[in-house]
Write a structure and sequence with these properties.
The protein is mainly β and 213 residues long. The protein has a domain of 145 residues. The chain contains three helices and ten strands, in the order αβββββββαβββα. It is elongated and about 70 Å long. The relative contact order is 0.14.
């Protein structure tokens, strides 16, 4: 949090609000918990006439150990059309951000720069049908993608071309079916060599057996 915001919060009259920005392929939603708030060239509203209002924001906390940060954000649409638009599953992996901001109690304008509380992507929406229809957005951080398994990544022509379309460097290479150990010694009894960079001792030694650079 910047110095201006910290100083403002020590004054008798200051409002602390949250700002949400959700960017999808169909719309960009900007909502606030403190009414009409301009920030740069953007305006955050307490109520969007098409997509609704913020229902609930969680306490944002860091993940523990190997877990990454997750958050559930609630939006209450004004009608069925807004509900269908917000709850559409095609918004998965769209960017969503939440800031903590300080407002001047007299002017209602921002003081300093809002502090980013959460930056993540929408995982999937959940629907709550009670007194009102609510859409709960289950969100994770972009860093969570680092924990996903990558068994689909292979030293093979199909995967190579999925990254570099039309590049045929692996199209006619044989022997790609065997396991290649990158930067590690081959397990005992595997019969396969590790990846060896440049010249060296030959045989089945892994990268760890090579001379230090």
């Amino acid at each position: 949090m910047d110095a201006a915001s910290i100083a403002a919060r020590k004054q008798p009259v200051a409002w602390i609000v949250q700002l949400l920005k959700w960017e999808t392929a169909d719309f960009t939603l900007r909502l606030s918990t403190g009414g009409f708030i301009p920030w740069g060239s953007e305006v955050f509203l307490a109520r969007d006439p098409t997509y609704g209002v913020l229902g609930e924001l969680p306490t944002f906390e860091d993940g523990i150990d190997s877990q990454t940060t997750r958050a559930t954000l609630t939006i209450i649409p004004p009608d069925q059309a807004g509900f269908a638009a917000v709850a559409d599953g095609k918004h998965a992996k769209s960017l969503i951000q939440v800031w903590d901001a300080t407002l001047d109690g007299d002017t209602g304008l921002l003081i300093g720069t809002p502090d980013l509380l959460f930056r993540g992507i929408v995982d999937f929406p959940r629907v709550i049908n009670g007194e009102s229809w609510e859409v709960v957005l289950e969100c994770g951080t972009e860093e969570a993608l680092l924990n996903e398994p990558n068994e689909d990544r292979r030293l093979s022509n199909p995967f190579h071309q999925s990254v570099w379309p039309g590049e045929l460097g692996l199209a006619y290479v044989t022997g790609l079916g065997r396991k290649v150990y990158w930067r590690a010694n081959s397990p005992a009894g595997s019969g396969g060599g590790g990846y060896v960079s440049g010249g060296g001792n030959g045989g089945g030694g892994g990268f760890a057996n090579q001379a230090s650079y």
